[in-house]
Amino acid sequence: MKKKALEKVLSAVLAGALSVGTLGGCGTTAPAEVAEASAASAVPGTEEAAQPEVTAAAETAESGDAQETSELPEKILVGIMPDYPPYDYQDADGNAAGYDVEVTKEVAARLGIEVEFQIYPWESLLPALESGRIDAVTAQIYRSPEREEKFNFSAVPYYRSDVNMIVKGDSTAETVEDVIAQGLTFSCIPGQLNEQYLQENNIAFTYFEGTSQTQIDDVLAGHSDGFLNQWALVNQILIDKGQEGALKSIGAPLASDFVYAVLPKNDAGVALGEAFSSVYLELEADGTLTKLAQEYLGDPVVEGLEAGIVE
Q1: Of 23, 35, 38, 274, which one has the greatest count of Cβ atoms within 10 A?
Q2: What is the pLDDT of residues 30-77, one digit of tens each?
Q3: Domains parsed from the chain with CATH numbers
Q4: Angstrom distance (rounded) from CA 77 to CA 75
């Protein structure tokens, strides 16, 4: 698919979609995660992920020819995590699986390009992208000002996640008002949405850096009373660990945030971002995103992505 054609399609789609309104996504992970980690610390046993060659797309961008290249690359390397079910993970045979993976496969198929997944631990995903070892990351990543300084994002999200208030299963708190009245302290992974909500509701919190699993462990160990996260994700982790019921979600979802494809900060990344964005809207419109979400996440309907479009 030609770059000019992609720009024309996306411009037309954005013109209509932006009339609905825009809402910038929010980062939920500390900027430090992308600053220090080495891409060489990929998951043991995945040699291709540990020291892959710099991608063809990155080489094109470095050569200065990206502006003149009208074609998308024939193949892209996409980074995911091995342990973030049901969004992205390794199945029993060691293959990439999950909602994010299947969405990305569909995008690649519609664009007529080959996709290969590179599996990295969370702390190495964005450094691998920044160093040019992979061409994109599709792993439930939200926007944040810090990330936008280093990376391009698709203008259109591919998923809208609800943020829930989560506390211990035996907590007497059942509502946000209970949390406030009881003076509970939450752990907060830095990010506009979470911080803003906690601050606006005068809920005490401490900053926390880590994965959903370590945040769960932090609460179960009594270091904090709760946190904000996606209940579907947290509950699946608890089930897999034999800890079902150890935590609970209280109240209605607090807000929704959007996740995007993350691309390198170069012309090749811009072209891929435009291509991904145009297909994401197609997948929402024809029901593919909802079908995949129902298969991997339960029964959510994926709609309203236009509200997450960022110009």
Answers
A1: 274
A2: 333 333 333 333 443 343 444 445 675 655 555 444 333 347 999 999
A3: 3-160+258-308 (3.40.190.10), 161-255 (3.40.190.10)
A4: 7
